[in-house]
Amino acid sequence: MNSILTYIAIADGKIKRSSLEVLSRCKELANENGLTTEAVVLHPNAESFTDQISTYGADTIYINTHEVFTSHNNEAIVEALTTTAETSNAGILAFASTEGVKDVLGALASKLNSGVVSDVSSFSIEGDAVKATRPVMAAKMMADVTVTGSPVLVSVRSGSYELTERASTASISEIEYSPSTDFKAVLKEILSAQGDTIDLNEAEAIVAAGRGVKDEEGRALISELASVLNAGIGASRALTEAGDYDPSLQIGQTGKVVSPQLYIAVGISGAIQHVAGMANSKVIVAINKDPDAPIFEVADYGLVGDLYKVLPPFIAAIKEIKQN
Ligand SMILES: Cc1cc2nc3c(=O)[nH]c(=O)nc-3n(C[C@H](O)[C@H](O)[C@H](O)COP(=O)(O)OP(=O)(O)OC[C@H]3O[C@@H](n4cnc5c(N)ncnc54)[C@H](O)[C@@H]3O)c2cc1C
């Protein structure tokens, strides 16, 4: 194994933070194992991202600026990444576990005839193998998986690693790739969910509402708390099923898996299916009127009380701290 290659995902004209977390981890592993660190970015403005990518330690950055990469296109990405993998000959291809990556990982593994381990919370190199830990059974258990072969494809949950700047002078290399013109599927439109202004997978902070949030007044408190913290809003299935929040905001086993720096669960009991989606958050704060609610078992900080009474002074205190 000579190098590790990280795929840099772009969304809304910006690099996804989770890709840079993975690149930070790859640089660390490369330093420990005497390997070079590579990255690939597929976007019409790929060149505009290379300075930021090299800040996180990439020695070589492969780019392709074809217009087809303006929006997500499975076939084109798989074809271009296959070419990149063959050009680079990297032993590991690492990805942030984004929705787009979930769409292409299996096909890419099949094209490259490689082993794949998806949605891991950590990974390392042991000899010629990649050792990874995957949360399984709704994150109640952790499975240690060892994958051999070359390359090994790894996708990593967002928030699993810190962003670590290690500036380098990267060489830029254009990947020879011309897409076929007859794609079987093309992305026509992305419909964003109502109120989903902050991508929960990228959010630094999330305020999540559960069934304890019973009415418009409660939802207004959630929005205000999220606004003062510049946080994304999430919800338990109880509230997405009730139609109070868009299904895309559901967090849990059958919703999104998130790992922000701060997760505030408001009026959420902490059912295993919900915890599966947020247990990896760095700091968990739970607000619940029931002192025996299971959410307190995973919380770092707990506030026992009626959210309608607790949230107004809580929000006021945060506003005051932010003003000073
Ligand atoms: C196959 C399967 C998949 C599932 N997937 C998911 C999933 O992805 N995500 C998910 O969230 N759920 C999922 N569920 C549902 C899950 O089991 C729970 O039913 C759900 O998470 C409960 O939501 P909740 O905590 O909001 O509601 P509840 O369990 O009803 O809890 C409400 C909490 O609010 C508190 N409360 C009430 N009033 C107040 C107040 N005024 N102030 C403070 N606290 C108050 C209560 O004490 C209680 O703890 C799934 C279930 C199944 C079977």
> What is the count of β-strands?
17
Number of domains as seen in the coordinates: 2
Bound molecules: flavin-adenine dinucleotide
Give unreliable regions as ranges.
Answer: none
- From the alpha carbons, calculate the radius of gyration and give it in angstroms: 21 Å
The number of helical segments is 9
Provide the residue-averaged pLDDT: 93
CATH class of the largest domain: Alpha Beta
User: So, CATH architecture of the largest domain?
Assistant: 3-Layer(aba) Sandwich
Here the CATH topology of the largest domain equals Rossmann fold
Can you walk through the features of this model?
Strand 15, helix 7 and strand 16 form a beta-alpha-beta unit. The model has no long low-confidence stretch (mean pLDDT about 95). The longest helix is centred in the N-terminal third of the chain and has 17 residues, at about 15-35. The N and C termini lie far apart (about 50 Å). Helix 5 (about 215-230) runs parallel beside helix 9 (about 305-324). The protein is of the alpha/beta class. It folds into two domains: about 5-175, HUPs (Rossmann fold), CATH 3.40.50.620; about 205-324, Rossmann fold (3-Layer(aba) Sandwich). Helix content is about 30%, strand content about 25%. The chain is built from nine helices and 17 strands. A seven-stranded parallel β-sheet has the order 7-11-6-1-4-5-12, with helices on both faces. Strands 14-13-15-16-17 form a five-stranded parallel β-sheet. A three-stranded antiparallel β-sheet has the order 8-9-10, with no helix packed on it. It binds flavin-adenine dinucleotide (FAD). Flavin-adenine dinucleotide (FAD) binds near residues 210 and 212. Flavin-adenine dinucleotide (FAD) binds near residues 238, 250, 269 and 290.
